[in-house]
Design a protein that fits this description.
Radius of gyration: 15 Å
Number of domains: 1
Order of helices and strands: HH
Distance between the termini: 30 Å
Shape: elongated
Number of helices: 2
Largest sheet: none
Length: 73
């Protein structure tokens, strides 16, 4: 039981780090001066979003829990 608790905690740490990286990347889009640079950050953000969604689905399935659905990724 303790090991499972540590595992889920580790997954939430990964999830929150990934979400933070996504937010940082999205903020960079607002600062872009060049259209090409903006597209690069948009693509990076899209990939972070996909990974965040995949990790969310994994956590829900693996630990039989439901995470907040207020933000769709």
């Amino acid at each position: 039981m303790i090991q499972k608790k540590q595992s889920i905690e580790n997954e939430f740490i990964k999830y929150n780090k990934l979400k933070l990286e996504l937010l940082k990347t999205v903020q960079c889009i607002d600062c872009c001066q060049d259209k090409r640079e903006e597209e690069i950050y948009q693509n990076i953000s899209l990939e972070y979003s996909k990974e965040l969604r995949n990790l969310k689905e994994f956590i829900e399935k693996e630990y039989q829990i439901s995470l907040c659905n207020c933000c769709k990724f």
